[in-house]
Amino acid sequence: MRHRLRHLRHHLQHILSALTGGHSHDHADHLDDALETHHAGRHVLTWSLIALALTATLQAGVAALSGSVALLGDTLHNVADALTAVPLLIAFAWSRRPANDRFTYGYGRAEDLAGLFVVAMIALSALLTGYEAISRFLHPRPVTHLWAVAAAGAIGFLGNELVARYRIRVGRRIGSAALVADGMHARTDGFTSLAVIVGAGGAAWGWQWADPLVGLLITVVILGVLRTAVTQVGARLMDAVDRDVVDAARAAADTVDGVLEVLSLRLRWIGHSLHAEADVVVAEDLSLKEAHEVAHRVEAHMTTLVRRLGSATIHVSPAHAH
């Protein structure tokens, strides 16, 4: 077992070395972060898939018994939400593949592409929910076993909310925009489950319009979540990084002994890891070896202080050259 862990650590070191183009070092804490990230991502997706599959199975049984179209729609939403875990699991597996001459930064962006699929599923949920609500307005249908329908709606809400919180919490911790978006998608289906409960209560009082009205309100909420998800995933695809992270990276480089100025700094997300490129100014009388050692210190300082920064490429410029 220990030999296998050493082998995996060596494999990850090789990936980091390929990404940094010669200025990479083995930092045990960042390797542990990488191992933890992949494990956490696979763990949350696997358990989410199981939980939502069980939820959808229970709801499907009640939908068949009661004839509730709203509950059937909620069941289909939960099935779709469970299936979004599949491309994310594939993306997490792909992201571990080493860089090569074609994909020189590795396969971390596969996770961001999976995020686009999640956004599409949120949009589909909004479309189906809106269509279903309008259809219920135009063609009211009686629903039987109302207590069972309400209970199934409650199960759907609780199942989706638990999964949503789990995905969002882990996604933010490991820096996965796709996983956060997937958690938002689970939350939208939880809102749809609440509509089932309200619709069942309205039907019990003879208010046939209650279910479609709430369905339309839920559609508006889902569209709001869709906007947030599009913004988050789109920002990741456009290499957006929080200003606080940029400031922290710049401060880490600027405080290294021998650095006179940080000329430029670029950060980008590759999957759930950050990569940095910095140009720092050093005294013009430094030897090549001394300048190289400054670059090493800058890289080590940045990767130590900046969370999720897995690699950094440092360019050194003499003071007279700018």
Query: What does the main sheet amount to?
Result: 3 strands, mixed
> Which descriptor suits the 3D outline?
elongated
Query: Which strand order do you get reading across the main beta sheet?
Result: 1-2-3
Query: Which stretches of 5+ consecutive residues score pLDDT under 50?
Result: 1-36
What is the number of E strands?
3
- Number of separate helices: 10
Structure description:
With 322 residues, the protein is mainly alpha-helical. 70% of the residues lie in helices and 9% in strands. It has helices at 2-20, 28-66, 69-83, 85-94, 110-138, 146-174, 177-204, 210-237, 243-254, 288-305; strands spanning 261-270, 273-282, 309-318. Strands 1-2-3 form a 3-stranded mixed sheet.
Summarize the structure.
The chain has 322 residues and is mostly helical. Helix content is 70%, strand content 9%. It is elongated.
Summarize the helices and strands and which ones pair or pack.
Elements: H1 2-20, H2 28-66, H3 69-83, H4 85-94, H5 110-138, H6 146-174, H7 177-204, H8 210-237, H9 243-254, E1 261-270, E2 273-282, H10 288-305, E3 309-318
Parallel strand pairs: 2-3
Antiparallel strand pairs: 1-2
Helix pairs in contact: 2-3, 2-4, 2-6, 3-5, 3-6, 3-7, 4-5, 5-7, 5-8, 6-7, 7-8, 9-10
